[in-house]
């Protein structure tokens, strides 16, 4: 049984409703695939949600694209992304921290996986229709809880995998949220953290070019000049690859893998195909040299951290206390 509502004693008291979700070892996929709403209703809800919460933040065209992308989401892509680097245990329990409208949780449950979501729902304009309301309409079973990442309503050692996909930049206390994710993670479990890299000349929420780490007052003026509402900018914490790695180390992870860096290095170092660019083949040869190779690898890693549009890190909780 997965019990919610028991926060750690060393945190501030926040009262949440108590849930008792009974989880059997075998899940009837037929009941999970059945949605409480159909696809057309989902599109209508998403369209209205984006219109209310993201007005003035993104253009109508971007809103339409994003609604279409969300509605067409079928596969839990995060699981495919981490598969080459970590084996998900059999019969895992998964938490999507910052689950939004529930895409990842629904996709996991449609494959018979025990996935749950937590969503504070405080993004954008904070209007009447919320992402949590939409998520709860998508499944016949209770799978979503309204809570903040700074104090998760779960017991310790509950989940095998915690997913934080495009979430960490939206939280107020990043260190505390990561510490909470580790607390509810089982020994030897993994945390997947993905977020934008604010060392890049682009703001992915507004879909606009923006100088890296631009001071908020100047960025606010610039957004208003472009006809955008800066309300979301005030809710964002500028985050970089280095910052995520530093916070994970402070929280005491056993180790982590920079997925973007490892993927690029694997492609470069093993590159032998004739159709590869001459630059890639040249870098591949240099990276495999006895002495120079390690410095080439370090340079490539630095390049990825500076230029990559987003950070993707897989961190691990120690297997023993």
Oligomer designation:
single chain
Radius of gyration: 21 Å
Shape: globular
Low-confidence stretches: 5-34
By CATH, the architecture of one domain is named: 3-Layer(aba) Sandwich
- CATH-defined topology of one domain: Rossmann fold
Proportion in helices: 25-40%
Main β sheet profile: 7 strands, mixed
Number of strands: 9
Describe this entry's structure for a reader:
It is built from twelve helices and nine strands. Strands 5-4-3-6-7-9-8 form a seven-stranded mixed beta sheet, with helices on both faces. It is α/β, with parallel strands linked by helices and 321 residues long. The chain has a domain at 2-196: Vaccinia Virus protein VP39 (Rossmann fold, 3-Layer(aba) Sandwich), CATH 3.40.50.150.
Break the fold down into its secondary structure elements and pairings.
Blueprint: E1 2-3, E2 20-21, H1 29-33, H2 39-53, H3 60-72, H4 77-82, E3 93-97, H5 103-109, E4 114-118, H6 131-137, E5 144-145, E6 159-165, H7 174-184, E7 185-196, H8 216-225, H9 241-251, E8 255-258, H10 259-269, H11 278-287, H12 292-307, E9 310-316
Parallel strand pairs: 3-4, 3-6, 4-5, 6-7
Antiparallel strand pairs: 1-2, 7-9, 8-9
Helix pairs in contact: 2-3, 7-9, 10-12, 11-12
Q: What descriptors fit this protein?
A:
321 residues; alpha/beta; Rossmann fold; 7-stranded mixed beta sheet; 12 helices; 38% helix; 14% strand
């Amino acid at each position: 049984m997965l019990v919610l509502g028991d926060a750690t004693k060393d945190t501030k008291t926040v009262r949440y409703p108590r849930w008792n979700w009974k989880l059997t070892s075998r899940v009837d996929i037929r009941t999970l695939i059945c949605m409480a709403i159909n696809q057309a209703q989902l599109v209508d809800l998403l369209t209205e949600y984006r219109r209310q919460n993201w007005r003035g933040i993104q253009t109508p065209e971007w809103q339409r694209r994003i609604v279409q992308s969300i509605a067409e989401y079928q596969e839990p892509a995060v699981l495919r992304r981490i598969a080459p680097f970590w084996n998900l245990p059999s019969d895992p329990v998964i938490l999507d921290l910052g689950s939004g409208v529930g895409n990842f949780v629904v996709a996991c449950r449609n494959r018979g996986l025990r996935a749950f979501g937590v969503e504070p729902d405080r993004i954008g304009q904070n209007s009447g229709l919320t992402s949590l309301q939409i998520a709860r309409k998508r499944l016949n079973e209770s799978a979503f809880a309204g809570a903040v990442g700074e104090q998760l309503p779960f017991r310790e050692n509950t989940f095998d995998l915690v997913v934080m996909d495009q979430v960490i930049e939206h939280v107020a206390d990043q260190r505390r949220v990561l510490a909470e994710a580790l607390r509810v993670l089982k020994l030897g479990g993994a945390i997947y953290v993905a977020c934008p890299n604010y060392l890049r000349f682009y703001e992915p929420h507004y879909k606009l070019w923006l100088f890296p780490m631009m001071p908020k007052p100047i960025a606010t003026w610039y957004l208003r000049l472009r006809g955008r509402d800066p309300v979301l900018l005030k809710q964002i914490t500028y985050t970089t690859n280095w910052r995520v790695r530093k916070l994970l180390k402070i929280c005491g992870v056993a180790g982590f893998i920079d997925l973007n860096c490892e993927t690029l290095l694997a492609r470069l170092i093993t590159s032998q195909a004739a159709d590869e660019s001459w630059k890639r083949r040249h870098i591949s040869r240099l990276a495999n040299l006895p002495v120079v190779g390690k410095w080439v690898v370090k340079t490539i890693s630095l390049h990825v951290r500076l230029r990559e549009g987003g950070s993707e890190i897989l961190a691990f909780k120690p297997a023993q206390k």
